[in-house]
Every structure is written in C-alpha cells, then in structure tokens.
Amino acid sequence: xxxxxxxxxxxxxxxxxxxxxxxxxxxxxxxxxxxxxxxxxxxxxxxxxxxxxxxxxxxxxxxxxxxxxxxxxxxxxxxxxxxxxxxxxxxxxxxxxxxxxxxxxxxxxxxxxxxxxxxxxxxxxxxxxxxxxxxxxxxxxxxxxxxxxxxxxxxxxxxxxxxxxxxxxxxxxxxxxxxxxxxxxxxxxxxxxxxxxxxxxxxxxxxxxxxxxxxxxxxxxxxxxxxxxxxxxxxxxxxxxxxxxxxxxxxxxxxxxxxxxxxxxxxxxxxxxxxxxxxxxxxxxxxxxxxxxxxxxxxxxxxxxxxxxxxxxxxxxxxxxxxxxxxxxxxxxxxxxxxxxxxxxxxxxxxxxxxxxxxxxxxxxxxxxxxxxxxxxxxxxxxxxxxxxxxxxxxxxxxxxxxxxxxxxxxxxxxxxxxxxxxxxxxxxxxxxxxxxxxxxxxxxxxxxxxxxxxxxxxxxxxxxxxxxxxxxxxxxxxxxxxxxxxxxxxxxxxxxxxxxxxxxxxxxxxxxxxxxxxxxxxxxxxxxxxxxxxxxxxxxxxxxxxxxxxxxxxxxxxxxxxxxxxxxxxxxxxxxxxxxxxxxxxxxxxxxxxxxxxxxxxxxxxxxxxxxxxxxxxxxxxxxxxxxxxxxxxxxxxxxxxxxxxxxxxxxxxxxxxxxxxxxxxxxxxxxxxx
Amino acid sequence: xxxxxxxxxxxxxxxxxxxxxxxxxxxxxxxxxxxxxxxxxxxxxxxxxxxxxxxxxxxxxxxxxxxxxxxxxxxxxxxxxxxxxxxxxxxxxxxxxxxxxxxxxxxxxxxxxxxxxxxxxxxxxxxxxxxxxxxxxxxxxxxxxxxxxxxxxxxxxxxxxxxxxxxxxxxxxxxxxxxxxxxxxxxxxxxxxxxxxxxxxxxxxxxxxxxxxxxxxxxxxxxxxxxxxxxxxxxxxxxxxxxxxxxxxxxxxxxxxxxxxxxxxxxxxxxxxxxxxxxxxxxxxxxxxxxxxxxxxxxxxxxxxxxxxxxxxxxxxxxxxxxxxxxxxxxxxxxxxxxxxxxxxxxxxxxxxxxxxxxxxxxxxxxxxxxxxxxxxxxxxxxxxxxxxxxxxxxxxxxxxxxxxxxxxxxxxxxxxxxxxxxxxxxxxxxxxxxxxxxxxxxxxxxxxxxxxxxxxxxxxxxxxxxxxxxxxxxxxxxxxxxxxxxxxxxxxxxxxxxxxxxxxxxxxxxxxxxxxxxxxxxxxxxxxxxx
Lengths: 676, 532
Description:
The complex is a heterodimer of chains A (about 675) and B (about 525). With about 675 residues, chain A is an all-alpha fold. Chain A contains 28 helices and 4 strands. In chain A, strand 2 (about 90-95) and strand 3 (about 95-100) form a beta hairpin. Chain A has helices at about 30-50, 50-80, 105-130, 135-155, 160-180, 185-215, 220-230, 235-255, 265, 270-280, 285-295, 295-300, 300-325, 330-350, 360-385, 390-395, 395-400, 405-415, 420-440, 445-470, 475-485, 495-500, 510-515, 520-535, 555-575, 590-595, 600-650, 655-675, and strands at about 85, 90-95, 95-100, 100-105. The relative contact order of chain A is 0.07. The two termini of chain A are about 45 Å apart. Among the domains of chain A are: about 25-300, no CATH class; about 600-645. Chain B contains 22 helices and 2 strands. Chain B has helices spanning about 1-20, 30-55, 80-95, 105-125, 130-140, 140-150, 155-190, 195-200, 205-225, 235-240, 240-265, 270-295, 300-320, 325-355, 365-370, 370-385, 390-405, 415-440, 455-475, 475-495, 515-525, 530, and strands spanning about 55-65, 70-75. Chain B is globular and about 65 Å long. At the A-B interface, strand 2, helix 5, helix 6 and helix 27 of A face helix 7, helix 8, helix 12, helix 14 and helix 17 of B.
C-alpha cells in the first residue's frame, strides 16, 4: 500500500485545451491543391443539388483554382529548389508512433499535379456538356471533385497514412462514379466489382505500409526512406522486400494488373468522363506514382523488381492482345489502359537506381494526356452515334469530321508515332529497359524489353483497327462521295427563279436534334487542350522536371518504329475485306465473345474467391446458430428441465421432510432460548 | 461538484418519476412524458459538457468499513464516452417523438431510456470499482424492459427470447465481473480505480494478475461482446426499438471495453500480457466472424448488429497489443463505433419502421431514388463501417492493425503479425457487406413502394450524427488529444511496475483476504492529496 502513496492519480491529468486553433493560416500550394477539390465537392453538394448551373460553376471554378495551385507549386519548386513540407491535421498523438501527416512538394509532385489538374479541369469542362441532360449531374461533378482531392492527396503526400487515405478515397469515388447511373444493373455490378477487386488488392498494401511504418517508427515518407535506405532498416533487406511486394499487390489492384485486371474493362459502364479521369490519368496510374515516391527502397529490392517486371510484362502483352479483340471501342481503350499502365510500371521495374523513376512518371503524364483525349473523343462520338460498340461507331469519323483530328492525334500518340508525346515517353521506357540490361544484365530487363517489343506492334495493330472502323465508308457512301466530287467539276445551270428564291431553309428535324447535341465551347476547349498537349507534351523532357537519359539507342528506336509500321499496315491491309472494315470481324463469333469476356477472368474470380467466401460465410452463420448458440439455448433448456424435475419431486402437500424441518427450527429456537 | 452529482441525479430522478408517474391514477400524456424526458436529457448533456470542461471531483465516504466511496470524476478516457452517452441520450429521446414504440406507456419508455443513460454515465464517471459494478448493473433492467415490452411488436416470443437472453447473458457476465472486481480489490487493497491504475499492477504476482484478469475479461467480454460469447447481441439489437438499439450498440458495448481498460489493462498489465494472445485471437476471430456473417445475413438490422461484433474486435485487438498506440486505437475505435453504430441504427431502425420489416430479400424502392437524404446517411454510415479513410472508423482500425503488427515486448510477435493480417482481411469483408447493402438498398431502379424521407427531428438526429462521422474522421485529434495523456500514463505505469515475484515490492496478494479492504479504507489518507 505504501508503494502507492505519492503517485498522482490519473484524474489529475488535465484534459488538453480544446483544439480551436487551425494548423496554418498561410496555405502552401500543396495544401491548396488538396483542399480546393475537397471544398468544391462539399460546395457542389451543398449548393448544387437542383441548381446545375451553380454546380457546374463550382466544379469548373474548382478545377481552375486547382490548376492555378499546381502552377504555383511549379513556380515554388523551380525557385526554391528544395522539398517543401506543409502540415495537415496532424501530428496525431498516438503513442510511440509518430504520425506527422505532412504534405510534400517536390519536382515529382509538381509535374504529376499539373497533369492531374489539367485532366481534371478538362473532365469537369467536358462533363458540363456530356451530362447536360442528367438530373444527377451535380452529384457526379462533386464526385469528380472528391476523386481529384484523393488523387492530389496521393500526389502531394509526405506521409504513408495520407497516402492510404487518398488511395482509398479514390477507390470509393470510383465506386460512386462507375455506379453513377445506379438504375442500371450493369453499372451497379461494375462499381461493386471495381471496389471489391481493388480492395482485395489493398489488403496486402495496408500490411506493406504498416511494415514500412513500424520499421521507421513514423509514417513520414522522408523519414521512412531514410530508415530503409541508410538507417537501421538498410540491413533488413528481406523485410523491405516483403513490404514492397505487399505494396505491389495493392498497386496491381488499383492499376488493374494481373491478376486483378478484369475490373477495369467492366468499369466502362461508368460515364465516359469518369473513365477519362479514373482510367486514364489518376487512379490506375497512382500505383506508378507510389513506386516512384518510394523508389529508393524499391530499387534496392531485386525480388520485388523482378515480380513487378513479370507482372507488368504479362499484363502488357495480354491486355494488348485483348484490346485488339474487343467489340466495344471503349472497352478496347480500357484494355489499352491496362497495357499502358503496365508499360509505366515496367519502366520502374528496370530503371537503374541512378536513373531514378522519371521515365515511368513521364509515361504516366503522357498517357494521362492522350488517353484522356481518346476517352473524351470516344465519349463525344458516342453521344453523336448513340453507343460505344464498334458497330455503332462505324464510320463515325467520316460523319462527324470535327472528331477526326483529336482522335487521330490520340491514336497516333497511343501507338507511339513521332513526334507525339506517346512516342517520346514510350521510347524512353524502351531505352531504360535497355539501360537496365546493359547496366546489370538482369532477367527483369530482358523480360520487360521483350514484352515491350511485342506490345509496341500490338498497340499499333489495335489502334489501326479502331481507326479503320472509325473511318469506314459503306459502298453507297463511297459512291455518293465520288459523285459529289465528280459533280463539283461540272458547273450546273442555275435558273433565275432559283437564284432569287428567298424562302427560308426548313431544317430537317433529325438534323436539328443532332444540332442540339452539338458540342459546346467548354467541352470543345477541353478536348482541344488535351489534343495540343498530346502533340507538344514531349517537350517536357527539356525542362528540369524530368531527369531522363534521353540518349536512346537509335537501332532500338528504328526497330520499334518498323514493328509499329509493319503491324499497322498489316491490319490496314486486311481491314477492307472485313465487315465494316473491322479486322476483328474476320474472327469467329466464339473467339470474339471470349475476347469480350476477358478470357473468363470473371468466372475465375467467382470460382476462386466469391463462392468460397460465401460458402464459408454460410458455414459461419450455421455454426453460430447451431454450435455456439446451442450452448446458450442448451443452458436455458437444461434450467427448464431442472425446474420441471424439481417440480416433479415436489408433491404439493406438506411432506414428512417439512415436518422434520419444522421440528429442527423449533429445536434450534429452544436451544437459543435456553442459552439466552 | 454539486453539478457533477446533478449529472447523475437528473436522469435518475426524471427517469424514476416518469416510470412511477405512469402508475398514478391519472397517467401522464405522451407529450408531457416526452417533454420531461427531453428536458432531463438536455440538462444532463449540458451538465456533462460542464463536467468535461471543469473536471470536478465528487468524493464522499459510502461504506467506510469496506473502504467504498462515492467517487466520481472525469478524465481523458471517460470524457469522450460521457459526451457520447449524453449526446445520444438527447438523440434517442428526441427521435422517439417520430415513432413512439407500442407495448407500454410513454412514461415507462422514456423513463427506461433515461435510466439506461444514468447507468452508462455512472459507469463512465465512477472512480470506484464496486460503484462501477453497481452502475454497470443499473442499465440491465431498464434495457430488458425496453427490449421485452417495446421491441418489435410483431413477435412476442422473439421479444421475450431476445430480452431474456440479453438479461441472463449479461447477468452471467456481471457475476463473473463482480467476482473479478472483488478479487482485484482484495488483491490490490483498494477499490479506487485511480490508485489501481497508478499501481500498474505493482505488487501482484503474474499468476494472480492472470487469474483475476481472466475472470474479468470473460465477464466484460460478454458485454463487449467478444467471440464466442456474442450470441446475445444480434437478437437484442434486432428486436429492440430504435432508441434501444442505439443505446445498446453505441453506449452499452462501450461499457465493456471501457471496463477492460479500467479494470484489466490499467491495474493488471502483466495479467493482460499473459492472456493477450487469447484475447487477440478472440478479437480477430470476431472480426472475421462478424464480417462473414454479414455477407449472407438477410435481415438488415441483424446485419448491422453482426458488424458490431466485427468492429468491437478491432477495439479489443488494440487493447490486446499492449502498446500505447494500441490503447489509443482502441479508445478511438470505441468512440468511432459508438457514433457509427448510432447512425446506422437510427437509419436502419427508421427503415424497418417504414418498411415493416428489415428483410433484404424483399424488392423495395431504391433509397437513392425515393429518399435521398436517408440514402446519403446510409451511404456515409456504411462507408464508415467499411473503414473508409476520412471517416471516423478508419483511424481506430488502422492504428489497431498497426499496433497488432508491433505489439508490446512481452507479446508473441509472430502471432500478432498473423492477427494483423486477419484483421486486414476483415476490412475486405466489411467492404463486401457494406457495398452489398448499398447495392440492394440504396442503388436500384425501383420507385415503388416509396418510403418517406427523413424529416423533422429524425433529420436533425441523423444529420448531426452523419456530420460527426465525417468531422471526427477529418479531425481525429478531438478524441485522441483527450485520451493521449491518460493512455501514456497507463502504459508508462505498466512499463515501470514489476510483478511481485520479480521485483522489489512486497507481495500484497499474499495477505489474508479479509483484512485487505479494511486496511485500505483505514490507511487511506484524506483523498485531497491523491485526487485533486
């Protein structure tokens, strides 16, 4: 007892003062980048319901402020030349673990933030037109804003927990955006599948982050990098490898890499602007960014790099083949995204430690531009043509000429034709694979280079196939066109009456309906800006934001260009003989159906994960009821039986025992009285 | 000081008066009963806010021969729980205005709600182990009445089964807890929770600690509820009226975990260390068990109840890890589950009243189409249930998994790594069932039969809870800052104290049993020195 005296009781520990102070009144660009879309989301939901014009204004204005903030960050990074940190809601007092929750501004975040902000603004601008007739436009715009907040949090994060928050927030928003049209069962299913598949990938991701944080005792990314590269963690290579492979699982989930690839094509059920945002610029590419952020740890781990190289190589080739076979052009773009993201990741798997992660990041940025352009272009066309299947879009570019140049630029960049952005970034990835081989002669390098040299012609092939479909002309159209051309050479007689005919032109009602859906200025500007960035974006390698070794082997470049051209011409040659110039129509119906179903990955998911888990769940419920609860019911039943037995032995009339009890009581009383 | 006493006196007097008033020849009208209950609960809320800000201490002798005292105070751990209880007290009373359950007089209903609130407040405020037990028991009978009389009106047998099960199960738990408390008080020589915590288990041999901790953990674990003693929970939550379900899930379960922190983690750290592998195992099995059951459960209310089993598993896992991070995680997850389950039960209870049942198999109008405000609250509630970052549940769950990965030095690390992995899998199951519910209830194309959206007082209650779920998710420091100093102190004391047979302190547990409490009462100096 004496040991306790003098120790203050816990109740004397005063509660802290109420947290009425706000962390920083002066916003940094990183804080502004995260805060602006979040506020735009809240305001859009609050004011925007029922006022679509207001909702659109908030969303687009938020996009502009975000873009401004990203430009400000660029200026800051260029002028200050140092990493800048800024706070958020931390640090949190959680015992021994330090949880500073800081944001970070550096070259990497500056470049990617600009790309995200540009695509985000373009998507918001395009959506105002694309969903003009949708009563749920305000909710969609708010969802896009929240999504951008999540992505920019991932981009700006200097903390593993903030990274996880942004990462999961994107997953949630993708559920909302893919399932936007929640009246359609397909959209609901696609949203559910997307979230669950990525969440299952994220399980190991969470463990990986925890391993990294536990080792360093903090979640601050600079401190974590120091610990695992030069501090006490540098000697624990196996643990670092385990953490990195765990992270790769989450990255494969969000980036739709094998074996998680199948959620992404299904996610095309979402509105096209959502696809342009989620599946081109942000969520699917976020994994690349995460590896780039943790590159110093990742590059030390040979096994993790080999795993990533293998997964990326397999996914790259497989999804490029699948892309070729899709009967829906939007799904073709989805598979091409899977393939292109694999290219980014493969660059990180093979880049030499000295070269840094910039080639992968550069392909991220270039892919963000040209794939967003392609998605918006196909979305635009689908509004005019009424669908995204190859059959619906046949000859689309012939009928709607203004789409010709954006789609052409997009496909050329996707193929990797010089001088477009896609060419620059893809050749640099090939170059870094070669550097990797020259530097270390490793397996990963050969794996990636081989896969790239297969993927490049495949990409050219599916792009050419899509282009042939889009530019297809029916024989009648062909003849008509020829006739117009011929007639234009012959002057026609015009009578005096016709010349002075001032009757107003009566428009065709069908054409008028088409006119209503004519694209408006913000949407047109969005597409145009992306188009020009796709054309000139490659110049970014001349800026200080990317440090790449752009001395690529000319033989390798020539070889890849030749492969590209060969594949493209091959497809072009076979297309005219196919129905609707669709080279894939030469294959049988069964083959095409197998391609559309992604070679049965969905069936595998159901058989390997969904059904066993549900079976286990039913088993658990049965066990809960019949085993665990049986004891409880059993005790109740046993009590009842015991009661009934007791009642049986009780004969409901004074028994001889009772007489003895009475006698005893009297006896005790007598003794008591006697003793008293 | 008088106001702290009033904090308990107001619900006690108002609750008793309401119940007795209904026995008067002229029964009070529903409106009067509601008004009295509302005023009482609002006054209680104001008083608790004052208590939390001012931190007064009530300390009067009660049974001097046994060393028992009327001792109430607020510290960093109890402050958020007290505010949660009082806030939800106002919410359930106000919410009942929308739909008063049948089965008894309004006065009895409101009176029972207030008495449950009284018991919970008493549990969180008291600083005496025996008083803790008494306050803990106070909630039982009112809650039994709420379930048995005012529960689901369609099925009398189910009501009586659920209520009886609740009562008997928790009485069993309480009995074990009483034995544990008496053993603890006997061994440590004091019933004062502060002094028990301050000792950090010093002077008690690990064996004694482990035995006492085991008894207490089983007893309190029934209340939490821990797997495998959880089967009372789903029927009780499902059958109870909306207000009863909210208090059950959001407040009563917290009393169990709060008790584990106060009676096991603080005074018996080495005993907890011995039992931690089993405790953590039960916790993660509960996480998986609840998540799996939710995947196939057809009754929405039953589903939310099962999800409570899973979420409380994270709280217990945090405690089992034995680190300061784990304890912070547990206390935060405790509050988080309180807010989220309250929101979910208000929404789901409202849906059940509107639908007539909570069967997920029946095709109904999509909430997104017909009642968007309720739909939004349901979406945010289930987003929080799946641990979405940015909402309140995330912090507790992530920190609990972190703590499980890096447990205290005396825990088996490999086993706790496995626990962390299992807990992570539990979050995927949570995503599965949360989105399953949203896919069935929230999204869809049916517009018939339409249900009315939240309105009036229900809208306020649900709206405020929804905002709290988001606000605490963005600003977790509101709770973490409050609990951090006490947690640091508990873990520090546990670290510096050494079990009797290892350290320098005389083994108190060896003293004759009956003498100890008395000497504690006698030797205690006037409490001014220790408590104020």
